[in-house]
Design a protein that fits this description.
Length: 501
Amino acid sequence: MPASDQFILTKMIATIGPACADAGMLGRLIEEGVRAFRINFSHGSFDDFKRLLTAVRTAEQHKRTHVTVIGDISGPKVRVGQVIDEGIDVHTGDMVVFQTESVVAGQSAVRNITFSTTRPDVFEDIQPGERVLVNDGAVRMLVHEKTFTEDNAQLVCSVTVGGLITTAKGMNLPDSRLTLPSLTQYDWQCVEWAINHQVDVLALSFIRQSSDVRELKVYLTRRTAPQTVIAKIEKPQALDELEAIIDEADGVMVARGDLGVEMDLPQVPIIQKRVIHAAHDYGKPAIVATQMLQSMIGNAMPTRAEVSDVANAIYDGADAVMLSGETAIGQYPIQTVHMMARTLLATEAHLRTTRHFRVPRRAVDAPVRFRESRYRTTALAHGVNSVVRDLGAKLIVVWSQRGGGARYLSQNHMPVPIVAASSDPAVLRQMALMYAVLPIHMPTPPSVYDFRNAMDQLLLTQGLVTTGDPIVLITGEPIGVPGVTNAMSIHYVGDVCRVPG
């Protein structure tokens, strides 16, 4: 466990893939500071997912810590159907046909190239004049004509930017108002698998409205499942309902990959700031993802711009940052995480010490929804932020049996680590993703006084504090009962607490 001055407040998420699929490599990533792992349900089988999850839990146990596992649900992603092995190189000016009938795409003598798609039901939503983007926008087309027959439907498109098209390449339809269901049959199978295998968080892709999130959350409630839901913002339609989506979800992710395909690229950093700002207002965590250290997939050092991108996500107020291909398929997963950790530490230190830089609004204002709630724990959390800064407290310590107290503290973006204790392993794993939170497993103590004394010993043993350090304790009585957090006290490490009388 790191000393508190080396504790990274912003959480790092690493995507698991062939480059880090075993417990040994995952353990090294944990040592470098990763506190959450993403399993992408778009790639692999359920046997593959089980193997990856087992590796994470093994590494977690070996490192005697708690990490969050995020199951990333594919959503209604449209992909190109089967293409001949070498792929098809289309050129500007070519006429291309997409059809509902299954076909193995190959070039014809007249260069009228026909493809199928994985989602033929999307054709009803596409109109002439709308764009079709393939392979993250590398290949671009414009729909000229749509025809229907009894057995087939076709979209006739002209290629405006050519390139290579291969099997299963993603298709983006930025101008089309899609009516596809938010979760496919396969997605629901993934949800069931995640529930049955104790995946901690579900990330929902390609959502367009708040009802997409609500549908999943209602199902989880019906199943009495503890998983939280992260809404991935990557469709233009989602921005139209951004506040409602954030209100419904447990957190949001700025998924800049597809977002950057479907939106004008210069708008992406503006959208990132808007999403993080709105998430703060609603007291929800915000994750920034995609291409943060992309060049490190094949290089041992990142570009200067990438390091600046990571730092600026923190200046924007992000709670977590995520690595994708860098750790999943990259040649340097350990070096990548190490570089990200160094960048986070340097940026957080700068925010703590400088007087010549604008402090993020998150560091001084409580979330709007927290202030409006008049709820005692949210008010207490806001007060703690002021006390910690005025006192120069080393740590915040909270008993958070169900994670609520830790969550409220986290969303006020405390300047020091929040040591959150619970006796529930599932809650501890979810708290591992919360900004600034260090989850600690502890049997429920008999009293607040026992909790203080036990925590003193634990913090000293782990090297997080030294005798005499001021810490702020957040508790409630009877301890261990959810929803009773209502007391803040200043405690100096080493002062023995005794039960009055």
